[in-house]
Every structure is written in structure tokens, then in C-alpha cells.
Amino acid sequence: MTDLFDPTRYAAVRRPLLEAATLPPDCYTSPEFYRREVSNIFMKCWNLIGRTDYLRNPGDYFTYTLVGISLIVMHGEDGKIRAFVNSCRHRGARLLEGEGNCKSIRCPYHSWLYSTTGALRGSNGMQNTRNFAASDYGLADVRLETWCGFLFVNFDPHSVSLREYLGDLDRYTESYEFETMVTVKRRDFTVATNWKSYIENSMENFHLPTVHQKSIGGIKAEWNPIDGAPGNFVILQTLTAASRATLGNDAAFDRIATLRGAAAQGAQYILIYPCTVIGADLDCVWFKQMAPEGPGLVRYSAGFCFPRVTVERSDFDEIVPNYHKRFDLVISEDNGIAETQLQGLINPFSRPGRFSTMEPLMHAIDNWILDRVVGPLPVAQRTAAE
Ligand code: FES
Ligand SMILES: [Fe+2]
């Protein structure tokens, strides 16, 4: 049996697009490959966990689990948003569940008390414990940085900053003014697929006429793929005259007034590696923050954002269901095919396939993943692959 992490096993994926093979099926099913993705990708990259407008007031919090690690994301009394490890510094009990607002965090086990900034404020029962300083037992925090109203965390204390990680992404996105948008709807989904299948699906238009024939499959558009390297993103731009965020002749909102350049000419579907997908259309923006839970399961949270002027329209509540209807239909089609794909990939006789000209970003995604999970092809083999 070949070594799953031997870079030469993936030489065919490293070839140019139209000569390349897809990733071997066991990359989507193997627990060992998944564990390596967790340690080399999810523990090292910036991962979306929500929006700043989820936490408007001091004391607002939500909990979030990413690759098995539970976090508390909290708006502190000092105005700063932080991410804490959801585990008491006394004997480790989980501190909070769900979301809400609190003045302080009380541990459900022995009532240690933490402030909303993570400081240990009350250490019940520790009066006679020697050399115990409460200041040494504040909640452990995880790096949290913000980009345009989106909250990202990184478990690696040595990672580059979020801004550096994103490279020149702003040049494609700044005219949306994401940071001023209002998040109006959030929904959670669980899909029995591999996380890579899901992001790959988000970045190709090949499946539209087949999977989305009842929704958006008939839309004619020009497609322009962008590999954002050296930033950690790819974008699938579409050139269309009208928004694709509602169906048929359903009533829609005005265009986002500030759009310029490619953003003004159609939708842009953005993948920030590994698992953040943003669909930015002419009149609204949606996003999916995905959290894998093993090789065959993805949980994700989807949100909708509109400019404040749109949300303040008197007919907002009347028209916004048209957006939700389209989104729910398309998302159910994508969720369904993602599960069907995994069912085929787990077949032991499944073999690697090939890419079409419509799948350049699949190739970019698969190579980005291989760079991190198995590393580059040894120099001696590269000429043969190229
Ligand atoms: S485990 Fe939290 S106070 Fe004891
Ligand atoms: Fe789709």
C-alpha cells in the first residue's frame, strides 16, 4: 500500500489543469488524511467564525466549535471582541453553551467567576492555596482578528496576521463595504460530505445546468476564475447584467450603490481558504462559514447581509423572503449533490478523474490543499509532472 502522505502519490494532480487528475477518492474519506488537514490547515489558517454585528453590546457572546475545539466569542466590557477557550482554568469544565448576554461568566462546577474580558474575578475556595495568583488563571484566548466585519480566529500563535493572509483580496471586495452591512438571517446546516467537496462545488459553474436546473441553472453568464495566490483565496467572477440572488421575476432590491469595477458587473464568489465562502452579488451578500467534523461531515452556518439602506426600506420585510426562497432552494440542491458525491467517493472502486476547462479553481484548490497536507513534489519529479 502506498504512503498516503508521499508527495509522489499526487504527481498527477500537480500537472497543468488539462493534463491533471483529480485528488484520489481517499483524500475525501480517509480519517488519517483528515487528521493531517486539521493539524496542517485548520490549526494554522484563519477561519471565519461570525460577524461583528452578532455581538453588538458588551457581554454579548456566542459559542462556536471548530474541528472539535469549543470557543466562546465575547464582546468584552472594554469594547473588544475576543475568542476564549471554552474551558474553566480550575478543572476544565465547559463554561458556556449557545449564545446570549452575561455580565460575567460563572463556571457551572465550583463557581469560579470570569469577567467578559476573560480575567479571573472570583476564585471561590482558593484562599489557602499557596502561590496562587488569580492573574495567572484568566481564560486562555485564541487569536481573533477582524476583516470588514467578519470575525476570524487562528489557533496558531505564529501565523501571519489576517491582513497578510488575505493578500490583495481587498482590491476585489472593498466597494461592497462589507463592514457597514447588516446581517439579517443566519441558518445552520449539517451535510454528510467532505469539506473539500463543498468548497469545490462553490467554486465551479460546471454543475449549474444539471444540479440547479430548477433554480439558477438557466442563467447565461461569462465566468472569470481568479487564483488569488499569494493571498489565500480564489474568486469565481460572473459577468451578468442583473443580480442572481432572486428567482425569475420576483421583486428585488436596488443594486448596492457603492459597487465599482468587476463588483459592479456581476456576482463574485469568493473562497478564503480553507472554509469561508462569500457570495457577493449586485444587491446582497451571503456567506457560509464551514466547520468540518470528520472526513464525512460538515456543519456550516450561512448568513445574509444587506446594505443598511436596504434593510431600512419600508418594503424590506415584504421582499426579503424572495432572497431566502432562492437561497434555500439553491443550497438544498448543493447540499444534496455534495452528499451524493461522497456516497460515490466512498465506493472502494472509485478512482481519480480529470478536469474540464470549467474547473480551473478545483485544480487550484486541490493543489493548495496538497501543498499543506503532503508538501511539494520532490524536484526530480517536477519536470515529469509539468
Ligand atoms: S471547574 Fe470551573 S470552578 Fe471548578
Ligand atoms: Fe451550486
What compounds are bound to the protein? Answer: FE2/S2 (inorganic) cluster, fe (ii) ion
**N-to-C series of helices and strands:** HHEEEEEEEEEEHHEHHEEEEEEHHHH
Low-confidence runs: none
N-end to C-end Cα span: 26 Å
Enumerate how many helices there are, as a single number.
10
Shape, principal axes of CA atoms: globular
Estimated share of beta-strand residues = 15-25%
**Average pLDDT value?**
95
The major sheet is characterized as: 7 strands, antiparallel
Number of strands: 17
Q: Helix content range of the residues, please?
A: 10-25%
Helix/strand-derived class? alpha+beta
Question: Which strands sit side by side, in order, in the main sheet?
Answer: 1-10-9-4-3-2-5
Q: Compute the CA-based radius of gyration.
A: 22 Å
Explain this structure to me?
- The protein has 386 residues and is an alpha+beta fold.
- It is 24% helix and 25% strand.
- It contains 10 helices and 17 strands.
- The strands form 3 sheets. Strands 1-10-9-4-3-2-5 form a 7-stranded antiparallel sheet, with no helix packed on it. The chain has a 7-stranded antiparallel sheet with strand order 11-17-16-15-14-13-12. A 3-stranded antiparallel sheet has the order 6-7-8, with no helix packed on it.
- A hairpin with a 4-residue loop joins strand 15 and strand 16 (285-292).
- It binds FE2/S2 (inorganic) cluster and fe (ii) ion.
- FE2/S2 (inorganic) cluster (FES) binds next to loops.
- Residues 88, 90-93, 107, 109-110, 112 line the site of FE2/S2 (inorganic) cluster.
